[in-house]
Specification:
- By secondary structure, the chain is mainly β.
- The protein contains 4 helices and 55 strands.
- The protein has a 28-stranded mixed beta sheet that branches.
- β23 and β24 form a beta hairpin.
Amino acid sequence: MLQRENALFQSKQQVSEFQFRWLRNSLNTRVAFAKGPRLASKRRSSMLGFLVFWLWSGVLVAQDTTGQLQVEVFGVDSTGERYYVPGAKVVATPVLGSPDTKKTSPASSESLADASGKAVFSLPYGCYQVAATSEGLKGQGDKICVTTSGTAVNLAIEMKLDVVVNETINVTATPEGLDTTESSASGTVDSSTLEHAPNVNERFESLLPLLPGVVRGPDGLINMKGARATQNGALVNSANVTDPVMGMSAINLPIDVVSSVQVLSNPYDSEYGKFAGAISTVVTKASELEKFHGNLQNFVPRPKERDGHLMGIGGFTPRLTVSTPVIKGRVGVTQSLEYRYVRSELNQTGLPPLERDTRLESFDSFTRVDFKINDRHTAAVNLSFYPQKLDYLGLNTFTPQPSTPNLHQRGYMAASEDIYTFNSGALLESRLSVKTFDADVKANSVGLFQKGIETTEGGFFNRQDRNTLRFEASENYHFAPMQARGQHLIKAGFNFARNSYDGNQIFDPVEVLGVSTRLVERIAFAAPSPLNVDQNESAFFIQDKWTVWPRLTLDLGLRLDRDSVAETNNLAPRLGFAYLLTNDSKTVLRGGMGLFYDRVNLNVPTFLDLPARTETRFAPSGLVTETWAYQHRLTGRIQNPRSLGWSLQLDREITSALFLRLGYQQRSTTRNFLLNPDRTVEGDFLTLSNSGRDRYREFEATARYRLGEKTHLTASYVRSSAVGDLNDFGSFYGNVAQAVIRPNERSLLAFNAPNRFLFWADVQGPFKLTIAPVLDIHSGFPYSVVNEQLDFVGPRNKAGRFARFTTLDLEVLRQIGLPFTKHKGRIGVRTFNLFNSFNPVDIQNNQASSRFGTFFNSKDFQIRGKFVIDF
């Protein structure tokens, strides 16, 4: 190879001896470094089990006395997406000893980045150090040598927040300037919040309710922007992590590896699909390429206390995370391990002291390997394991431990991403992922499952065995910026996924007991049959972010989805806009409208194979009064649920420290999977149809006040309405199946909370203290009333509401120096429900009970310590 390069240079007769030596030494360095991350236009292989990358880079040949240097300056937002930094000042400074330093002045050359973030220089051949600065941002590029081949040399510089970090305080803030080009409404939980906010479960999902419009419903599930948990999407590093069967997020990540979490409601970027409500996108932290870093925490067990006595371990959740370069500047590895054993007590339930705990045991492992092949080419491989056991699931005042099920889950996910930036400024993203998720639902005891007025007895009636596999591949291409009546940033992509589900479900008989435990109804089920379904999903999209003129940006998108279950081509157009209302660029009006198609969860096409039910009613004398032998029926073909959403939002930066947002959004969802018992002259049917409808409306007012880069105070008020059909299919055939199915009604959804006020802050105080309070106040959730036969009395979810929910959580953390070492640590305390407010989640809603209308099961005040060792 060196001979070929030498012959080329001699034939040109324009290359100095210095240039030849420089190229030879550079080439020898490349050969010594793993046979060349920078060899000409060839990809190299990087495999973890099954994933292969082919990676390219280029070598330029000199031929003239001057050359061209093109510098692209960009930032990376909280979702991992690049954005341009127009107007940045770019300076190219000759490096001493560069070949032309004797012929030219050593003075630096300056240029400003254009609207696409590019600055172009015409420079004498030689080596240069390039730096870029903008308001509050700075970036430093690697040394680069300009050749004289007539071909431009390209350099990409990432701009980062210009923050001074002293020896005692680590600042991990990210820039939060007013985004003047994004059309979609979104909320972000950043790394500082993930680290400092009080978090009882220490899961990133637990912090999503810090965002306006995101609430934890009465069943404990997260509801984003008025949608059921099964209607939302979940991405980790752009890979789908939902359970293909149930449709909910099915991955556990140690919180230390999460960089940010963003919730997108009605995203007008057509890259996002396969959801009807909102979508959460998780970005994990990149591995350290320059220095070793790690932390250890929660290594001290938490005792379990009952009635003033210590009774074993209440919790033990050690977590270790390390990130280190393997080849400095080139390859880095992150490894995080977390074991969790937690016993959570239910208070004010009347359950026996030793039988009022749920139990969680899990082990989560996350491995990430990052490759920096060159300034324009990066790659990463992720591997996650997340087995867990949830015992006594659904424990509450009226369902004791013996009558609850256990949910045991296991699985792994392997994913890769490859990002390559071309000389033109175009960018190619390639991703592969394989995910397994297996789940078992087992009973905690044997015996006939009996639902009484005051309590439930016997073993849980439903047993499940589910095995799922998901393979996904995607290619996204970002075109170089184009000029045609403004600037166009166009991207297009393709996605393919293969899902499979094998399993079975067994249903045992159920009895409903009335007053004096007399039998009022018996539900029997047919024999089980194997469940098996496969699904292919494909999607194409194209998106154009069109800057019509500096004050107006349009998002024009089109997405085509198809899956092998619905067998329908679903075309989803999107239109968004962002308009600068004022000349000072501090007031933005944004909004748009879009059509969104949801996925078909794999439990839906198995409905006809699930065991049929027979319901028998009994009179007080014990005689049979009615019998309904339901056959499973599907009306029409299966279709993808779809939603039509639109939003309008006004953002105003009143001062550099004060930000105000006012917004309204609305979403109407149709074709939801609806389950209804139909009794007709032709027979009795349990009917599944696509006739379900939801509607969500939300008004939001948010204010944020910042004191420098270390402190912020955020307050928001949300007025919302969530209504829809209540017999959602997933509510009855989910992880915890429901035995009793009554006729559908359209009413308030169970997580409807019309008024909500939220305040939270991240305050860097004196004495190295970090103080993070969270105040959450919202309307109580609606409930229904039933009689002894468990038939609804009056309209559903309109009998009243739970008491207003109010809680104040607080975390205080102080940085300390560890004795006998140079390492730092953090020590602090976390409190939950500081004022011990009464926030019940259970109500006796049976009219036949002497405790009718009484609320139960409120979380009491909790206090926990926190100790983190950083190394």
